[in-house]
């Protein structure tokens, strides 16, 4: 008994030493990346937060003075007794940008998830030429966003765009539409381009989750005569849920900070202006650097809150387990 206990203690000690060695090795490899990340991301973020509490101007940033929360909310009482509220938290343009961003994100992510799931199910099936189809599906995602935006801007042009020409020939519209300039269609145009470009990303992540499902489960369901629709909702969807939840949060974060697509397609349209576009305009175009920094800080806080709430409520597992 004493010898057995000694052997067990020695094995546990060796295992603990190996575990600690692996932890040290992991930190050794991660440290350079964390240092670089702190320099290129952490420091600019802290500077932006700091500038949001100052009166910094783009022309003279070094002369910025601390003014507290005035960029977020300032209350001024006039001699007449009238109270004037000013700042980002009472700015209707800012809240319009927040609404535009949330609406864009929700619609685009839901649409891309549904279409991406359908595409992933097709790509997961066995058929001739599947590799070619998978490569072709990824082409829209592989094209840089700026290139995609300019390409679609030409296609959606109201004078010589191919979209209007096709719809006119099919009899679906009676006159040419200025898709990106018309307030009624600008958001629809942006959503259409974003869904076309980013659906392959969702399909790729969902496909990775589908390929982790054992084929024996489907064979058993087929033998039992279970309807394919029931198999999808009772088997496929629950098993692919971890990958699906991670894909949704990644895509949601990307959609909430959308800038380049909006800025190229509809730069000056109030119906599509997002939080990122609002922040950029105040930072550089309007020379309201401190106000733009406050908008950037609010964007960061909104992203953080949404991410934390989603992870907690959705019980997202980033470790790959069930």
Which descriptors would you attach to this protein?
single chain, 322 residues, mainly alpha, MetI-like fold, 2% strand
Structure at a glance:
The protein is mostly helical. 69% of the residues lie in helices and 2% in strands.
Itemize the secondary structure elements and their pairings.
Blueprint: H1 2-51, E1 74-77, E2 83-86, H2 92-124, H3 130-137, H4 139-142, H5 145-155, H6 162-170, H7 186-210, H8 215-223, H9 228-256, H10 260-265, H11 275-285, H12 289-314
Antiparallel strand pairs: 1-2
* CATH top-level class of the largest domain: Mainly Alpha
Order of helices and strands: HEEHHHHHHHHHHH
Shape: globular
Total number of helical segments?
12
Compute the CA-based radius of gyration: 26 Å
- Parts with pLDDT < 50 across at least 5 consecutive residues: none
Average pLDDT number: 87
Distance between the termini: 39 Å
Structural class by SSE content: mainly alpha
Strand order in space, largest sheet: 1-2
Characterization of this structure:
A hairpin with a 5-residue loop joins strand 1 and strand 2. Helix content is 69%, strand content 2%. It has two domains: 50 residues; 231 residues, MetI-like fold, CATH 1.10.3720. The radius of gyration is 26 Å and the shape is globular. It is an all-alpha fold and 322 residues long.
């Amino acid at each position: 008994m004493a010898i057995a206990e000694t052997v067990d203690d020695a094995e546990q000690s060796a295992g603990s030493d190996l575990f600690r060695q692996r932890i040290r090795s992991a930190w050794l490899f991660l440290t350079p990346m964390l240092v670089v990340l702190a320099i290129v991301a952490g420091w600019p973020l802290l500077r932006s937060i700091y500038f949001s509490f100052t009166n910094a101007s783009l022309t003279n940033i070094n002369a910025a003075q601390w003014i507290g929360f005035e960029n977020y909310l300032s209350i001024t009482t006039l001699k007449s007794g009238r109270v004037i509220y000013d700042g980002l938290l009472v700015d209707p343009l800012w809240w319009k940008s927040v609404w535009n961003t949330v609406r864009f994100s929700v619609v685009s992510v839901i649409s891309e998830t549904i279409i991406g799931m359908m595409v992933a199910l097709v790509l997961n099936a066995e058929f001739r030429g599947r590799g070619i189809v998978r490569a072709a599906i990824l082409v829209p995602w592989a094209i840089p966003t700026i290139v995609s935006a300019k390409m679609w801007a030409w296609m959606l042009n109201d004078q010589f765009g191919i979209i209007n020409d096709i719809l006119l020939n099919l009899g679906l519209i009676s006159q040419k539409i200025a898709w990106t300039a018309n307030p009624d269609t600008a958001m629809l145009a942006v959503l259409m381009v974003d869904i076309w470009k980013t659906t392959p990303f969702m399909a790729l992540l969902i496909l990775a989750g589908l390929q982790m499902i054992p084929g024996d489960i489907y064979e058993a369901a087929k033998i039992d005569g279970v309807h394919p629709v029931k198999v999808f909702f009772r088997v496929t969807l629950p098993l692919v849920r971890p990958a699906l939840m991670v894909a949704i949060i990644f895509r949601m974060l990307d959609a909430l900070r959308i800038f380049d697509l909006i800025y190229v397609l509809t730069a000056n349209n109030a119906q599509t202006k997002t939080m990122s576009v609002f922040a950029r305009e105040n930072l550089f175009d309007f020379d309201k650097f401190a106000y733009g920094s406050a908008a950037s800080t609010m964007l960061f806080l909104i992203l953080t809150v949404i991410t934390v709430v989603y992870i907690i409520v959705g019980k997202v597992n980033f470790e790959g387990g069930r």
